[in-house]
Design brief:
InterPro entries: Cro/C1-type_HTH, HTH-type_reg/antitoxin, Lambda_DNA-bd_dom_sf. By secondary structure, the protein is mainly alpha-helical. The chain has a domain at about 35-95: 434 Repressor (Amino-terminal Domain) (Orthogonal Bundle), CATH 1.10.260. It has helices at about 5-25, 40-45, 50-55, 60-65, 75-85, 90-95.
Length: about 100
């Protein structure tokens, strides 16, 4: 029996909701915009490094490492960043 990560499953479900909702909108762009860099996304959401780290569920040093391009976010973190990019206010909601 395969054991699945509940956080990954939750983020996958949320991603499907966001993508389904977005697919109902009229297509304006031909291609999907790429995920912004972590620092750009953090600035877009108006969060400090420590707040962004809390929302992402990682350490401040991990966020700094992503922003310096020394490491890449995990697949789960990338999915959460897609959700934050689709709804920049989600980060503030998760902090409350």
């Amino acid at each position: 029996m395969e054991v699945k990560d509940p956080v990954f499953e939750l983020l996958s479900s949320l991603e499907q909701i966001v993508l389904t909702r977005d697919s109902l909108k009229p297509a304006v762009q031909v291609s999907t915009p790429s995920l912004p860099e972590p620092q750009r996304l953090r600035e877009l959401t108006g969060m400090q490094v420590d707040e962004f780290a809390r929302v992402m569920g990682v350490s401040v040093s991990s966020v700094k490492s992503w922003e310096a391009r020394r490491t890449r976010p995990s697949a789960t973190a990338q999915k959460l960043m897609k959700l934050l990019h689709a709804n920049p206010y989600l980060g503030r909601q998760l902090l409350d």
